[in-house]
Write a structure and sequence with these properties.
This protein is α+β, with helices and mostly antiparallel strands. The chain has 17 helices and 26 strands. It has a 15-stranded mixed β-sheet that branches. The longest helix is centred in the N-terminal third of the chain and has 76 residues. The termini are far apart. Belongs to the OSBP family.
């Protein structure tokens, strides 16, 4: 009891002392000086050898530590090195065990961190560690240190629990022994246990003191750095706002100073650079700087065509035809029939068959913690995540598909076109128009139940009617068919794949859309681009469309390549920009389209093309000489008060309006969707859970029937081979795709009021 007290092991400190090491059967245990430092245990014959001769070293990161008896313990790294050691007492042995376990835990952490940094650091050049990089490195280093201290605290806590339990057992045994010979031995054991508990408690206290000291030292520095970052962010936001306003003013001033199409940068480039047809203006021209500054260089540039093309007469039309490869009829269509058609359908107000509603109940202002729901959904398929109606809008996905027909007049005009290239311009504009309703629509549509349908009968008002049906549940897929009296048919099958990435949500539509025209037998097909919802966790939600679309005419080989540019705060280009080129089967360009998917689209006839200067990426861009651009589509204004009605368009406001005679599976009859529209969200959530459980029960029943059918001699069906009621799957010979197409019978059943074949899904 009177011997000097050795130092208590402290996490991360060097620990030294004498131990007895087993050498061989002749010499037995020999006294050696051991030093524990930086995860390595080394030994020497004497303390004097520490400066020049190390007798052996073992790495604790890969070593096993085992206790044999009261004084002996073994350290081994898997067979190559094994140290059989003995301490002078059980207390001394426990001091070493504590120090070794702490050092091993720290060595394992350091090795793991070294592996992680080795995978990431080579990608960053050394010179990048300036400014914010240095601050980030300092923060990461401090965080690693604090994390190391927390691990030390955890290890000490485990040791305290272990030694505390041993001490408790010894105290219990002490109470039950007889007074006599055993008393001295038990008291000695209890004393040693208490000493071990005190040692580990002191180690815990030291570790806590180190952690508290580090936290206090860095707390003020972090607070100051955080405030600096906040100030910088505010200044950056103010600067961006000022730049955006200046850009808007300059753009308006530039538009007002030119006679060219006023909305887009590409067609206006030639206003100052001349009309030489080569596209090589002076290097000092500001317009060239405008183009070179774009982050994503355009593949082509448009400039006004030579005035001779605008003043052409009948005598030079034939000469122009031979030069451009187009016939006289096509040239005349450019001047006479594009962008306007006197036979276009009359507005809805002229033939009011039925007064449609113009308002729905305002959206309630319910608070919901988005992160509490979404934090466990990162990387998952959105359609498989149970979501409350707070994130929805009171429309189903089938009704959102039907919204594609809001600008049906474009297809009506396309059906009257005599030229396939002209018709392609209208079809391309129609594909862009379908995204105009999404710019403010951040609410998620209801996932349709299997077998759910939606009809949109506008035959008397607009000359078309459409039908949608949910034909698959996993993966969710919907089939859509629309037919018009004007001579066109639209059909599509869309399956959505969505992933939550933490900061944003990506929605990737799968499947294709097809448009067929009766008069020309032209068969068009295309796919949709990716929709991204930004600021899921923090900030105001906003939606962007990005990607590329190829609209293909399978009969003639004509093609239109559309590019949706992703939105960027720092781009000088027009936000939400869409550009496209219409080419024939030989790849010759005939029309250029430009616009934005949330406002309007314009097109220009190409009169001549040439290769211009190289872009910023070294790629040579094509310069198209075009006629004056004409508007082919413009977005309808939103109804008054749309911001309180989920930003619904005039058509969207009518989609969920109750109607008589629709099928019992129609989305208008869905109770949870109706309750949400009425503002009764709590009841809607309960009803939504009931419908989802009913759907799961129906799926299990189909699985049982499929198992029975498979076990019978007759051929069975997989439970997911659900047979749609109004659609059937076919292989389209024109496009080579497999999709569900309308097989007929719905409108006949509606006229007869016979819905016996419809399943009970609500």
């Amino acid at each position: 009891m009177s011997e000097p007290k050795p130092p208590t092991p402290t996490p991360g400190d060097t620990y030294k002392g004498w131990l007895f090491k087993w050498t061989n059967y002749i010499k037995g245990y020999q006294r050696r000086w051991f030093v524990l430092s930086n995860g390595l245990l080394s030994y020497y014959r004497t303390q004097a050898e520490m400066g020049h001769t190390c007798r052996g070293t073992i790495n604790l990161a890969t070593a096993n530590i085992a206790v044999e008896d009261s004084c002996n313990f073994v350290i081994s790294n898997g067979g190559a090195q094994t140290y059989h050691l003995k301490a002078s007492s059980e207390v001394e042995r426990q001091r070493w065990i504590t120090a070794l376990e702490l050092a091993k835990a720290k060595a394992v952490r350091m090795q793991a961190e070294s592996d992680d940094s080795g995978d990431e650091c080579p990608a960053v050049p050394p010179s990048s560690g300036q400014g914010g990089g240095c601050r980030n490195s300092e923060v990461q280093s401090t965080l690693r240190t604090l994390s190391s201290k927390v691990e030390d605290l955890t290890t000490c806590n485990d040791l305290i629990v272990k030694h505390g339990s041993a001490l408790q057992r010894s105290l219990s045994e002490l109470e039950g022994i007889r007074v006599g010979a055993d008393m001295g031995e038990k008291i000695r054991q209890v004393t040693e246990r208490a000493t071990l508990f005190r040692i580990t408690s002191n180690a815990m206290i030291n570790a806590c003191r180190d952690f508290l000291s580090l936290a206090q030292n860095h707390s003020k520095r972090w607070q100051k750095a955080l405030q600096t970052e906040r100030d910088q962010r505010i200044r950056l936001e103010e600067t961006l706002e000022q730049l955006a306003k200046q850009h808007n003013h300059l753009e308006r001033a530039f538009r007002g100073a030119t006679v060219l199409p006023p909305s887009f940068s590409n067609p206006t480039l030639g206003s100052k650079s001349g009309v030489s047809g080569k596209g090589d203006a002076s290097d000092e021209d500001d317009d060239n700087e405008f183009f070179d500054a774009m982050e994503d260089p355009a593949e082509f540039i448009t400039v006004p065509a030579d005035p001779k093309y605008h003043r052409r007469s009948g005598s030079n039309v034939s000469g122009l035809s031979s030069e451009t490869g187009m016939d006289d009829q096509s040239v005349n269509f450019d001047e006479l029939s594009l962008a306007s058609n006197p036979e276009s359908p009359q507005p809805l107000e002229l033939e009011p068959v039925r007064q449609r509603r113009t308002r729905i109940p305002d959206k309630p202002n319910y608070y919901l913690n988005l992160w509490s729901i979404m934090k466990n959904c990162i990387g998952k398929e959105l359609s498989k995540i149970p979501m409350p109606v707070n994130f929805n809008e009171p429309l189903s996905m089938l009704q959102r598909l039907s919204e594609d027909l809001e600008y049906y007049e474009i297809l009506d005009k396309a059906a009257k076109c005599q030229n396939s290239l002209e018709q392609m311009c209208y079809v391309a504009a129609f594909t862009v128009s379908s995204y105009s309703t999404t710019v403010h629509r951040t609410g998620k549509p209801f996932n349709p139940l299997l077998g759910e349908t939606f009809e949109l009968d506008r035959l008397r008002e607009c000359g078309y009617r459409s039908l949608c049906e949910q034909v698959s549940h996993h993966p969710p897929a919907a089939a859509h068919h629309a037919i018009s009296e004007k001579g066109w048919t639209l059909r599509q099958e869309i399956a959505l794949a969505s992933k939550f990435r933490g900061k944003y949500l990506s929605i990737m539509p799968l499947g294709s859309i097809q448009c067929l025209f009766d008069k020309s037998n032209n068969h068009y097909s295309w796919k949709k681009v990716t929709t991204t919802v930004h600021n899921i966790i923090v900030g105001k939600l906003w939606i962007d469309q990005s990607g590329e679309i190829d609209v293909v005419n399978h009969k003639t080989g004509d093609r239109c390549h559309l590019k949706f540019a992703p939105y960027s705060y720092f781009s000088r280009d027009v936000p939400r920009k869409v550009t496209g080129v219409v080419t024939d089967k030989d790849g010759k360009a005939h029309y250029v389209l430009s616009g934005t998917w949330d406002e309007k689209m314009e097109f220009s006839r190409i009169m001549q093309s040439s290769k211009g200067e190289n872009g910023t990426e070294g790629k040579q861009r094509t310069v198209y000489q075009t006629l004056k651009a004409k508007e082919i589509w413009r977005k309808n204004p939103l109804p008054e008060g749309a911001e309180t009605m989920y930003y619904f368009s005039s058509l969207a406001l009518t989609l969920n309006e109750p109607e008589d005679g629709v099928a019992p599976t129609d989305s208008r009859r869905r109770p949870d969707q109706r309750l949400m529209e009425d503002g009764r969200w709590d009841e809607a959530n309960a009803e939504k859970q009931r419908l989802e459980e009913k759907q799961r029960t129906a799926r299990r029943e189909r699985e049982r029937e499929a198992v029975k059918a498979a076990s019978s001699p007759e051929e069975g069906a997989h439970p997911e081979n659900y047979q749609a009621l109004w659609f059937e799957k076919i292989d389209d010979p024109e496009s080579g795709e497999t999709l569900h197409v309308y097989k007929g019978g719905y409108w006949e059943a509606k006229e007869q009021g016979s819905w016996d074949m419809c399943p009970d899904i609500f």
